[in-house]
Amino acid sequence: MEKLTLKTTQRYREQQRAVIEKRLKPDQLTGGQMEVMVCRSTGCESIEAKRILERLKKVVNSKGLDDKIHITQTGCFGFCEKGPIVKVLPENVYYVMVKPDDIEEIVEKHFVEGNIVDSMLMEEQQGKTGRREEISLFKKQMRIVLRNNGRIDPESVNEYIAVDGYTALEKVLNGMTPEEVIATLKLAGLRGRGGAGFPIWQKWTNARKAIGENKFIICNGDEGDPGAFMDSSVLEGDPHSVIEAMAIAAYTIGASKGYFYVRAEYGLAIRRIQVAIDQAYALGLLGKNVLGSDFSFDLEIRLGAGAFVCGEETALIASIEGERGTPRPRPPYPSISGLFGMPTVINNVETLANIAPIINNGGEWFASIGTETSKGTKVFALTGKVNVSGLIEVPMGTTIREIVFDIGGGIAGGKKVKAVQTGGPSGGIIPEKYFDTPIDYESLNSLGSMMGSGGMIVMDEDDSMVDIAKFYIQFSVDESCGKCAPCRIGNYQILQILERFGKKRGKEDDLEKLHDIAFAMKKGSLCGLGQTSPNPVISTLKYFPEEYNEKIRKPKIVQTK
Amino acid sequence: METLHEEITDEIRAILDKWKPKEGNLIMILHGVQQRYGYVPWNISKFLASELSVPLARIFEVVTFYNFFNLEAPADYKISVCTGTACHLKGAPVLIQGLKKQLKISPKAQYTEDRKFKVEEVRCVGCCGLAPAMVINEEVYGRLKPEDIEPTLETIKIEETS
Question: Is A16 a member of any domain?
Fold first, then answer.
């Protein structure tokens, strides 16, 4: 394959765009032409998406429809619970829970006869047109990070290039100075999506100014939150968007080497990233003299090995260095002294996926979305007792109620909603009375939870809050690295107390003890894991004290702090 | 635990050759080893220690820190029940109980007596939309109900005899 240069990319892009033009503009599909997309993300893939794709190709071929019907694999459409999913253009309908044996019927009735197979649409769409705009899950969503998910084949660099992929890198290499990149990000107000919400421009500036023989950029794909799959979906559905952003980051801070740190459990994501890296090298988008410029950038994958704490940046660095993943005290921050002692920028997958659109559309555009303090969108993995679980992206400032009821379709089985949990083991529980709070970093913190990476788990009246708190503390006990005492001992002691409550044998002074231990952990732990792991206990104690009180042996009303 | 002696294959030598010159290579090498043998065998650890010129303890501290690495040979059928939050809420604990009862594994143990089956709890496998889910070897089974356990295990046993 011939390598692209800054001069030739535009022509190459136009050629590639012509190939998939009709998928991007479905109204140009005429005379029985169709574009068919099959989701092949982890969720759908685990339930036979591959066989469905193969079967589709075979049946379409046997009916002699190859000329008219173009079939492709894509990333996640968003409503994972209804998988496997097949999308058909120009009708813009989604067939859900498709089985390989359904393919004949879809091809015969829809592709040949032109009638949509009503019984295979989502329930709420049956008897209607089934078009995308009528599906409640998509209402109120805004896709920036997930812009290409479900739209292009994640294993094709050409399709990514066709949808304006790598234009941001081109723009940067074509004459933006690192300072201009940073100024754009500052204007955009992009904050880290991994949890803490640190301003990206600040991180990049620190690393740019830091002095080091080498500098590194790391993509943190160690998505360890139980109940979160946002990053894996981006990596599986649009790996090039992250690679492009890493190259831009490297150019900006002056790095020439990058690492993709991904959980070993994410087999599909790892494979897709490797395919994407190989393609990018082949086209001259990575490697020596990227796009014929002076900028060189190498990228390689490093695997995690099942340690939640490795999502913490200093532990992640230790892991890439081949050590036990234990955190180090900060400062020095990684942007000054990180991987192998060199200045290092670590950004989360979702953060990076925002970079190219910001460079392309400008900081002002991005800053116009969201709230005063939190700009842009946030991807959530909406799961639990909600009717439609899946992957959603909403502007910051959307309320929890809108997400649970308008997008998620309310609570399954007609039960009453009790709370949502955000931020995973580091986050807290937000009771129903606060559902009208617009979501941003600050509002979630003030409710005793946090943005975290974006898991949102809905709980109904049957879920015991003490049990949920115990679940998360058990997780933190398992995952504490053991380096510092507050986290190692504190989590275990909290678990012991919660176990007593589970057996309805809580003691009267236990609630105070829980508060004391939690306070000590917040103040004394070395890293974010220990500092935040009592949050599920603190927030359930605050909002649902009665559930604790009724599990104390001698019932007595206890006023919690 | 019986210690098995595994053969040092060319594959392992190739992995070493590839990663040896790179900084921070140990975890990637261990991934290669586990992929080849299904676990990190004792004698291979010793071999790595001498090849990489590091103390054996250095290999062991890493292997034992990360959940992904195993020191024991794998079962023929590894059943990993997801215990992520969504799966927990939707009944993962009941699934584990049911599986262990069916396979006659005591609540605290993981393996069947003949070491053919292993039931383990894993954190999020990334398909929360299909909760509760379990993975048998590489295959994911989603949207499970307790009554699905018996037929699923039956299918495996039939596949095996055929």
Answer: no
Residue A265 contacts B where some CB pair is shorter than 8 Å: yes
Whether A179 maps to a domain, the answer reads yes
Give the range of the structural domain holding residue A504, as residue numbers without chain letter: 472-549
**Cβ within 8 Å of residue A312, ≥6 positions away:** A327, A527, A528, A529
Cα distance between residue A196 and residue A124, in whole Å: 37
Q: By three-state DSSP, how is residue A16 classified?
A: helix
CA angle B131, B136, B140 (to 5 degrees): 40
Q: Answer for the pair A130, A137: CB distance below 8 angstroms, yes or no.
A: no
Residue A161 maps to which CATH number? 3.40.50.11540
Please state the three-class secondary structure of A83-135 as a single string. Answer: CCCEEEECCCEEECCCCHHHHHHHHHHHHHCCCCCHHHECHHHCCCCCEHHHC
Bridge-partner residues for A87, per DSSP? A37, A94
Q: What percent of chain A has pLDDT over 70?
A: 98
Count of domains observed in chain A: 4
pLDDT for the residue A242 = 98
Task: Map A407-454 to HEC letters.
Answer: HCCCEHHHCCEEEEEECHHHCEEEEHHHCCCECCHHHHHHCCCCCCCC
Q: Is residue A400 part of a domain?
A: yes
- Beta-carbon count within 10 A of A332 CB: 14
| Distances, alpha carbon A510 to alpha carbons A129, A543, A560, in Å | 57, 17, 11
Q: Which of B24, B28, B126 sits opposite A232 (nearest CB)?
A: B126
Q: Residue A102: inside a domain, yes or no?
A: yes
DSSP bridge pairs for A260: A219, A301
* Per-residue model confidence as pLDDT tens digits over A343-385: 999 999 999 999 999 999 999 999 999 999 999 999 999 999 9
Q: What is the pLDDT of residue A452?
A: 82
Q: Which among B27, B86, B124 is the nearest to A305, CB-wise?
A: B27
Verify that A127 and A229 share a domain, yes or no. no
Residues A434, A287, single domain; the answer is no
Which tens digits make up the pLDDT trace of B24-71? 999 999 999 999 999 999 999 999 999 999 999 999 999 999 989 999
Say whether both A428 and A513 belong to one domain. Answer: no
Question: Do A34 and A163 reside in the same domain of the chain?
Answer: no
Residues A349 and A236 in one domain: yes
Interface predicted TM-score (ipTM) of this complex, two decimals: 0.88
Same domain for A48 and A184? no
Span A357-368, pLDDT tens digits = 999 999 999 999
Q: b/e per residue, A112-141, with b = 16+ CB within 10 A? A: eeeebbeebbbeebeeeebebeebbbbeeb
A193 and A244 assigned to the same domain: yes
Closest CA relative to residue A142, chosen from A354, A349, A348: A354
- Whether B127 contacts chain A with CB within 8 A: yes
Report the CATH number at residue A131: 3.40.30.10
User: Minimal Cα–Cα distance from B9 to chain A, Å?
Assistant: 22
* Tens-digit pLDDT profile for residues B103-130: 999 998 999 998 899 999 887 777 778 8
Residue A340 forms contact with B (CB below 8 Å): yes
A414 with A361, same domain? no
Q: How many CA atoms lie within 13 A of B113 on its CB side?
A: 1
Mean pLDDT of A502-526: 94
Residue A58 CA: distances (Å) to CA of A51, A100, A333: 10, 11, 55
A447-465: pLDDT as tens digits: 999 988 788 999 999 999 9
Q: Is A216 on the interface with B (CB under 8 A)?
A: no
Q: Give bridge partners of residue A72 from the DSSP assignment.
A: A37
